[in-house]
Amino acid sequence: MTWLDWVVILAYFAGVAGVAWWASRRQDTAEKYFLAGRNVGWFAVGASLFASNIGSEHLVGLAGSGAKSGVAMAHYELHAWCLLVLAWVLVPFYYRSGVFTMPEFLERRFNPTARWILSLVSLVAYVFTKVSVTVYAGGVVIATLMPELSLFGLDSFWTGAVAVVLITGVYTMAGGLRAVVYTDALQTLVLIVGSLSLTVIGLSKLGGWQELRATCGSQMFNLWRPASDPEFPWPGMLFAAPIVGLWYWCTDQYIVQRTLAARNLTIARRGAIFGSYLKLTPVFLFIIPGMIAYALNQKGLITLSKPDQAFPELVAQLLPSGVRGLVVGGLLAALMSSLSGLFNSCSTLFTVDIYRKYRPAASERELVRVGRTATAVVVLLGLLWIPAMKLVSGALYEYLQSVQAYLAPPMTAVFFMGVFWKRLNGAGAVTALVSGFVVGMAKLACQVYAGMLPDAAQVSGLAGVLVGFGTINFLKFCVFLFLFCAVVLTVVSLLTPPPDPRRIENLTYATVTGEGRQEIRASWNRWDVLHTVVVLGLILCAYLYFTG
What we know:
- The structure is a single chain.
- By secondary structure, this protein is mainly α.
- The protein is built from 23 helices and no strands.
- It has helices at residues 3-23, 30-35, 42-53, 56-69, 74-77, 80-97, 102-109, 112-145, 156-206, 209-216, 234-250, 253-260, 265-279, 282-298, 310-318, 323-358, 364-392, 396-420, 426-452, 461-470, 474-494, 514-522, 526-545.
């Protein structure tokens, strides 16, 4: 890192700080702090959706997956269509209900117990996925780019991880969702420019696109792996990946909260559609650079010790002074945008869905203070989980997707079936959420147990059963768990009384009133439809191209 790189990085931080200061003024009510006063435009909504999703797990994990397995993980990035499902199917229910959180929506659709359970499950999910993954990836980035960095006896990995947490926490806790959304808009621009610069320079160094294809081979350019593939069997990617995608993009507080901050239903939908355009770019921003790193390593032009170092190694070894600072700014943008959105979502979930239920008389200032404390606790638990991550998977992005495959199915089943089938009730939803969570966590525990054994394949008896359960392919298990939760939800609901029709009015498609239908129809026009068709066309083109 040269003095010019540091100047560029400092200029970036100054810009973020200025935007955060502007956004943090007058955050004195819960609605302003948690939902930005419901006054955000479509560009900021879409950019925040993208920036919050594209975090360090993409810079480190997705690029690492590209270096290891090629475009196999691009399925998850082509889930831009899930944002269209959010825009057209679920946003009308979420926005018109006036809720702060996804658990609050479940309370209105089912019962208060469903709300409480989903809040706890979501916070646990954040510890195992977003917090631990983001902080771990941030440590990898800092350790690769600045290996000499050390503070209070900590090595460069932990120094970088803690520093990113503290810096991001300051502006997020001060400014709430408004600071998150508007700094995300700035960071999205920096991230795209920086990553595209790396892709262009890397391809030039390698000798162009055709040289990349020749060096990597057809297998790395194939989205569809054989059904016998131990990591990415095509049936699993076809059926399991959408289950995770629909949970993440359509029901996860971390994502959906941005659409709830829009100034009206039309803006919320268009923000989601704009976000779907941006979601298509990671294939070229992160996966392709990972494949470039693999190809350059094969040719002896760079040294790549392990896949998860692909992106930061390209930055360190290829880029000239100044440009390197710009791209490091993009790296920091991804780290900070992910964490900032996560911090705000954690505080919202705990404060609105748990604390306020027990203290309904709490003041607005008390709610904001409790939200900040809850965020700090979740982050601490995520830091403590980091050492166990390698026992689940050696590749960061595969770890993330596997753990999400154990957590997502019950929530996907409850939300989507609940919106489309009015007969489902609170008893069914609660039973499905609890049983699905228990089974998913049992799978994670068995996988960690298998990873701790020096020779897991040779054990027998009860230990062998646990190891066998823990080593089931995560994609196949995801499909099984979704079907299990769907059956539990259906059976328990049919064996218990149906919900009160008055309670679920305007909360399912079958119970939308005439006035509600008119409001939904008035919220879109032919331009919304046109852009939706364009996004679907681009997704189809990607699937047709990446076939080996």
